[in-house]
Design goal:
The complex is a heterodimer of chains A (171) and B (392). Chain A has a single domain, classed as Beta Barrel (OB fold (Dihydrolipoamide Acetyltransferase, E2P)), CATH 2.40.50.840. In chain A, 14% of the residues lie in helices and 33% in strands. Chain A is built from 3 helices and 10 strands. In chain A, the strands form 3 sheets. A 5-stranded antiparallel β-sheet of chain A has the order 8-7-6-9-10. Chain A has a 3-stranded antiparallel β-sheet with strand order 2-1-5, with helices on one face. A two-stranded antiparallel sheet of chain A has the order 3-4. In chain A, strand 1 and strand 2 form a beta hairpin. Chain A is globular and about 65 Å long. Chain B has 392 residues and is of the alpha/beta class. Chain B has a single domain, classed as Peroxisomal Thiolase, Chain A, domain 1 (3-Layer(aba) Sandwich), CATH 3.40.47. Chain B is built from 14 helices and 11 strands. In chain B, a hairpin with a 1-residue loop joins strand 5 and strand 6. In chain B, helix 6 packs across helix 11. The chains are: A alpha+beta (171), B alpha/beta (392). Chains A and B meet through helix 2, strand 6, strand 7, strand 8 and helix 3 of A and helix 5 and strand 5 of B.
Chain lengths: 171, 392
């Protein structure tokens, strides 16, 4: 048997519960250094000595080769939009007043061939990209760069990058 | 190529059962599991005494707000004083349940297994989307305030770009599956809709709109699997599990091309190899590709190698995947039409193929003769591929 939301609320024996849980996550060996880099306005990757890929975001091991990664490599931060969407809803499905544009950015990094299946990349917000750019497909392949928060506002967080914005030239 | 796997016993499915799929079912998770389990046992003409082992599948604990959900559900699933395990690979759980049940029997460890998938998503308020927030990486992803639909929209947009598929092409999946579900007695979201209805529905995360997505559902589904000798004793028409496959891609979903489900191709190759299938696009007669979103069915048809890359949208337009088509997909109505109680939905897909292969699907029975079938499920951060290949 099933009911509608309004009827559900009136039923006997409905138990409400709100969990209370707080977490403090450590970012780990690779991402802590990555976040320190962001604070300095730098995007850091880590080199796999075996397949020569520079992994961004960095990890202490390369999952392809299962070998420890070695050198830290700064990547330029520029890249191309791999895919982009327009969100009209927030985390709990509430409607947003102003839609957000989100994308995956394929970063320029050593060790990958053009158009490779695996790539160095980040998931972030896009600014200066319009809803129409997303719908028409113009946004995809667009050359973008990070828009950094002012140094004094950076906290060593992925949000030290405010968003990725068009670099000017469009493919 | 010979499968690099030791199989002691051939495994057959001998029974299946489902509850209704609905939002806000009043039964508890255990009660739902029990209903589906009992129906599956009845359909096989067996009782719990005949069952050696139990496999229970359910997705994130956070939906129920109860940890150790597998243990919590186990007695309703028949897992009382028997070897019992809980399986969880996100949305891939539903097809992982029969995969795990298969190896319990194939190894010779158990002669009979009761395999149950259960999900109750409607507990979480105001919307289960809030609970989905905990699947994101806490360091790099959660600070962006993501909604789960973001990743699917990103993947759909990439697929549309690479395959030059339009929103209209993709909406046809929703139209087909919701229409197929009109003949399914358990269906929650069966409807006769048009492409236009999909394109006019609420835009959530463009390109994903309300009618592109399966609903929030509660429900349970169960199967009974048995070794060959038991299966032949209890039924004249067992459905054999000929191949199983499962793969995880990495959690760095933004480090790979989302246009193609690599996780699924690997899992499918494993299952086809075991089943001796070399040309799935010719040899598979009916399929239940995992369709929590409409584009996902097309994506999975390609990952299962039932169509060439980017070819699924044009075949769909031609009616190739209709119930009357050459290769019917989601004849049940899928997650889009029947509903998506996560772990139960995958089991429902395998149950549908069980009925299709026994010609017991009634109004849903596909037109063409059927002998071999494949189902898949998918989950986690675009990661998990789970596949079963069935035959008569």
């Amino acid at each position: 048997m099933y009911v509608r939301e309004e009827e559900f609320r009136k039923l006997a024996g409905i138990v409400e519960y709100k969990p209370v849980a707080r977490y403090s996550y450590s970012a780990g060996q690779a991402l802590s250094e990555f976040l320190r880099g962001l604070k300095d306005g730098r995007i850091l990757g880590k080199l796999c000595p075996s397949c020569r890929r520079v992994l961004v975001p960095p990890r202490v091991y390369c999952e392809h080769c299962f070998k420890p990664t070695t050198e830290w490599v700064e990547v330029p931060g520029t890249g191309r939009v791999e895919t982009a969407v327009i969100s009209y809803i927030g985390t709990a499905r509430e409607r947003l007043e102003k839609p957000e544009i989100i994308g995956v950015i394929r970063l320029e990094a050593p060790g990958y061939t053009e158009g490779s299946f695996d790539f160095a990349g980040l998931f972030h917000k896009l600014c200066g990209v319009t809803e129409d750019d997303v719908i028409s497909g113009r946004a995809i392949g667009m050359k973008v760069k990070p828009r950094w928060r002012p140094p004094e506002e950076r906290k060593g967080s992925i949000l030290d990058i405010e968003c990725f914005e068009p670099e000017g030239g469009r493919r | 190529m010979k499968p690099n796997i030791f199989v002691k016993d051939k495994v057959g499915i001998v029974g299946a059962g489902l509850t209704l799929f609905r939002r806000r079912l009043l039964e508890t998770p255990r009660e739902l599991a029990w209903e589906a389990a009992r129906e599956a046992l009845n359909s096989a003409g067996l009782t719990l005494k005949d069952i050696d082992c139990v496999v229970v599948g359910s997705a994130p604990d956070a939906f129920d707000g109860v940890h150790m959900k597998g243990e919590y559900l186990s007695d309703g699933s028949g897992g009382f004083m028997k070897p019992t395990v809980r399986v969880f690979v996100g949305g891939g759980t539903g097809v992982m349940v029969p995969v795990v049940a298969w190896w319990h029997v194939a190894s010779g460890l158990c002669r009979t297994v009761l395999a149950v998938g259960e999900e109750k998503m409607s507990h979480a308020h105001p919307h289960p989307q809030g609970v989905f927030a905990y699947i994101w990486d806490p360091i790099l992803e959660r600070p962006l305030g993501p909604n789960l639909i973001w990743i699917f929209a990103l993947e759909m947009r990439r697929y549309m770009h690479v395959c030059k598929a339009s929103k209209e092409d993709i909406a046809l999946v929703s139209v087909k599956n919701k229409r197929n579900a009109l003949d399914h007695p358990a269906a929650q979201a069966a409807a006769s809709i048009t492409v236009d209805d999909v394109l006019k529905s609420e835009v959530l995360v463009w390109p994903v709109q309300l009618l592109d997505i399966s609903p929030v559902s509660d429900g349970a589904a169960a199967l009974v699997l048995a070794s060959e000798s038991v299966a032949r004793r209890v039924t004249d028409t067992p459905v054999w599990v000929e191949g199983v496959g499962f793969t995880l891609d990495n959690a760095h979903w933004y480090n790979r091309d989302l246009a193609y489900p690599r996780y699924l191709e690997y899992a499918a190759r494993m299952a086809y190899r075991m089943a001796g299938i070399e040309r799935p696009w010719k040899e598979i007669d009916v399929a239940e590709p995992y369709d929590p979103f409409d584009y996902k069915e097309l994506h999975h048809i390609e990952g299962l190698m039932l169509a060439r890359r980017c070819e699924a949208p044009s075949l769909l337009r031609e009616g190739y995947f209709d119930r009357s088509g050459d290769l019917p997909t989601s004849p049940s109505g899928g997650l889009l039409g029947v509903g998506n109680p996560i772990a139960a939905a995958g089991v429902m897909k395998v149950a549908e193929l069980f009925w299709q292969l026994r010609y017991e699907a009634g109004a849903r029975q596909v037109k063409r003769p059927v002998h071999k079938a494949v189902a898949n499920a998918w989950g986690d951060l675009m990661q998990a591929g789970t596949v079963v290949v069935l035959s008569t």
